[in-house]
Design goal:
- This is Acyl-CoA dehydrogenase.
- Residues 120-215 form the Acyl-CoA oxidase/dehydrogenase middle domain.
- Residues 6-109 form the Acyl-CoA dehydrogenase/oxidase N-terminal domain.
- The model has no long low-confidence stretch (mean pLDDT 98).
- The chain has helices at residues 7-24, 28-34, 41-47, 66-79, 81-100, 103-114, 229-265, 277-305, 311-341, 347-357, 364-376, and strands at residues 119-122, 138-142, 145-156, 163-169, 179-185, 191-196, 207-218, 222-223, 267-268, 271-272.
- The longest helix has 37 residues, at 229-265.
- The protein is 53% helix and 16% strand.
- A hairpin with a 2-residue loop joins strand 2 and strand 3.
- Helix 5 packs antiparallel against helix 7 (229-265).
- The protein has 377 residues and is an alpha+beta fold.
- It folds into three domains: 7-118, Butyryl-Coa Dehydrogenase, subunit A, domain 1 (Orthogonal Bundle), CATH 1.10.540.10; 120-226, Butyryl-CoA Dehydrogenase, subunit A, domain 2 (Beta Barrel), CATH 2.40.110.10; 230-376, Butyryl-CoA Dehydrogenase, subunit A, domain 3, CATH 1.20.140.10.
- The strands form three sheets. The protein has a four-stranded mixed sheet, covered by helices on one side. A four-stranded antiparallel sheet has the order 2-3-7-6, with helices on one face.
- The structure holds coenzyme a persulfide (COS).
């Protein structure tokens, strides 16, 4: 068993760290207030090669393995979980095409990501959240085209993406057997971006509604077969869950680091509060949680990279690391007392950011269902 990154990975990690310290952390509070990323941030992230990390070498990308990608997202999560979410959404949105797309679809999407483009994964709808099979967006076949009608909500990068992976139902009666995936470029007539969400946390991440009104796409925009969409979505979510989890780990680690530093500096009763055992116990518990979450994340990624079964560990990592991010950020605020609760310090934002980690890309209740199903059936 090897618990260390290799030299190449360490170099990459250092590069991402520097990027985070220069371009993300100093602007996190401002982006949080603005409910938007800094205008040139994704351009810089693209130049750094952060937007196409899973693009295979044969399509002009670095073709990084899951362990390395998680390492990158963990570092991004330390700076801002919202920005990390937006960047990781490119991987989420590209899996369906990488898994089941045609050569042409792969080439087009990979070219876009290699050139700093953004993609969005559009599955969720007002009536289809945890029940991913409840998608009501319709795709009606008309000769060699499909006509798409429906609404998507809570779509990460919804207002910024160049292309969208849209799940629609090709069956009149609906149901998971009709779910079908399509690539819809942003400039397609009838496609528009609706309301932008005003969220509790991860505010620098753009989250929007999408409206599809008689959107005509050619048959060649369909990813996989008709009715294959549910399986494609599930496979994609399996692969992306450890990445969400890695963002949670970075988020939690950064909250712990800030709280530990504060505890050493803050003096009460004539001594640093770090000398009090109740504070030490909190710091120790936080550190154990972060470390165990990290181990689960890299185990899930390692299993995937080895071509082994990983869906159970992927769900475990997403669920556990998300819960840990919530608990650790709450405790970081507690260690810092009134200062932790103030917007002058970064942990209150981190606590708000952490809540989504238990909700998006499959709630932690759904993750527990997936884990139990894998064990029991
Ligand atoms: N990989 C491949 N296939 C899968 C799968 C997976 N991880 N999970 C389910 N399937 C297949 C099943 O094998 C089954 O196929 P058959 O009917 O051919 O046997 C089919 O899909 C339906 O499975 P199931 O009956 O388990 O589906 P449910 O409708 O009960 O849904 C959950 C299962 C709840 C796990 C699923 O809907 C889910 O993950 N929901 C959360 C969605 C989500 O993450 N949303 C967040 C928004 S997207 S960012």
């Amino acid at each position: 068993m090897e618990f260390a990154f290799n030299e190449e990975q360490e170099e990459l990690r250092e590069m991402v760290r520097e990027f985070v310290e220069k371009e993300i952390t100093p602007f996190a509070a401002e982006m949080d207030r603005n409910n938007a990323p800094m205008p040139d941030l994704f351009k810089k992230a693209g130049d750094m090669g952060l937007l196409n990390v899973i693009v295979p070498e044969e399509y002009g990308g670095p073709g990084l393995d899951s362990v390395t990608v998680a390492m990158i997202y963990e570092e991004l999560g330390k700076g801002c979980a919202g920005i990390a979410t937006s960047i990781a959404a490119n991987s989420l949105a590209s899996y369906p095409v990488l898994l089941k797309g045609t050569e042409e679809q792969k080439k087009t999407l990979c070219d876009l990501l290699n050139n700093g483009g953004l993609a969005a994964f559009a599955l969720t709808e007002p009536g289809a959240g945890s029940d991913a099979g409840g998608v009501a967006t319709k795709a009606v076949k008309d000769g060699d085209h499909y006509i798409l009608n429906g609404n998507k909500i809570f779509i990460t990068n919804g207002g910024l993406a160049d292309t969208y992976l849209v799940f629609a139902n090709t069956r009149k009666s609906g149901g998971i057997r009709g779910l079908t995936a399509f690539v819809v470029p942003r400039n397609t007539p009838g496609f528009s971006v609706g309301k932008k969400e005003d969220k509790m946390g991860i505010r620098p991440s753009n989250t929007c509604e999408l409206i599809l009104q008689d959107v005509v796409v050619p048959e060649s925009a369909r990813v996989g077969r008709e009715g294959e969409g549910f399986r494609i979505a599930m496979n994609t979510l399996d692969s992306a869950r450890p990445f969400v989890a890695s963002v949670s780990v970075g988020l939690a680690q950064s909250a712990l680091d800030i709280a530990a530093k504060y505890a050493k500096e803050r003096r009460q009763f004539g001594q640093p509060i770090a000398s009090f055992q109740m504070v030490q116990a909190m710091i120790a518990d936080m550190a154990m949680k972060v470390e165990t979450a990290r181990l689960l994340v890299y185990k899930a990624c390692w299993l995937r990279d080895q071509g082994k079964e990983f869906a159970k560990e992927a769900a475990m990592s997403k669920c556990y690391a998300g819960d840990v991010a919530m608990q650790v950020t709450i405790d970081a605020v507690q260690v810092m007392g009134g200062y932790g609760y103030s917007k002058e310090y970064p942990v209150e934002k981190k606590m708000r950011d952490a809540k989504i980690m238990q909700i998006y890309e499959g709630t932690n209740q759904i993750q527990r269902l997936v884990i139990a199903n894998k064990i029991l059936y």
